[in-house]
Design a protein that fits this description.
single chain, 252 residues, mainly alpha, 7 helices, 0% strand
Length: 252
């Protein structure tokens, strides 16, 4: 049972008949508390690295657009070059996202299977095997999501907007500079890059962004990443404790 399973049909700690904290001594609980703080710090650092890569993409995009639109005679090539550079940033960020997911996986396991059942044993879902899963993850460090899911998630969350700005900017550059086009064939002619014909450039540009769109769509069903925000549980009524709920657990 993973920490991502839905709430319905999963037993609570009270239904199983145990308190998660009773499996540990005070010293062991203290160790878990420090471990939790450490994993939170790790996930924070890797989250900052994700933001750094996105900032690189935004800054370089802004620089390329400023250069391309600085004058009507400026070339459109910087937009094409920055498009490839932004894709490199996407690959780097996807790799960082896979590492970030490792630490987020551990913090979510501690929150879901230790802290939540302690705070609310009568409602929080509980997996008795979480300790073995956590120990195995500590001993055998591995990624929990594929590079394709990481690429798709970062593309849909952030980079789709950056690529969209680049596409619109490139088209506007070809249509407006050095003078507004009179026919669509002029835009294709202006897309020429050195010895590369404009039709080849336009076709390669369209193919590249078509593959990006396909990647974003095909990776939507991939759901291995942890910590996703869930919709409200409308099937659960507000909980009102009864007197029997306040009694300690019976010996099992």
């Amino acid at each position: 049972m993973s920490i991502q399973e839905p709430f319905m049909g999963v037993q609570t700690a009270q239904e199983i008949g145990e308190r998660p904290s009773e499996r540990f001594t005070n010293a062991e609980l203290g160790l878990l508390a420090h471990l939790y703080r450490g994993e939170i710090y790790r996930s924070k650092i890797w989250r900052q690295r994700l933001d750094t890569t996105t900032n690189w993409a935004v800054v370089t995009t802004g620089a390329a657009l400023s250069l391309a639109f600085s004058s009507p005679e400026s070339s459109h090539i910087p937009i094409l070059l920055i498009t490839w550079l932004v894709f490199v940033f996407l690959v780097i960020e996807a790799r960082r996202y896979r590492y970030f997911d490792i630490w987020r996986y551990r913090t979510r396991m501690l929150e879901v299977d230790l802290i939540a059942p302690i705070l609310s044993p009568e409602r929080a879902r509980y997996n008795p095997e979480w300790r073995h899963m956590f120990a195995e993850d500590l001993q055998d460090l591995r990624f929990h999501i594929s590079i394709w899911e990481a690429l798709g998630r970062r593309l849909r969350r952030n980079y789709s907007y950056i690529f969209g700005v680049l596409v619109v900017s490139w088209l506007l550059k070809l249509m407006m500079h050095p003078t507004p086009i009179q026919r669509w064939g002029e835009m294709v002619d202006r897309a020429t890059v050195g010895p590369i014909a404009g039709t080849v450039t336009v076709a390669a540009f369209a193919l590249f962004h078509g593959l990006l769109a396909l990647l974003a769509l095909l990776t939507v069903p991939l759901r291995e990443a942890t910590g996703r925000v869930q919709p409200p549980r409308r099937e659960l009524a507000p909980y009102t404790p009864e007197p029997k709920d306040l009694r300690p657990f019976e010996e099992v």
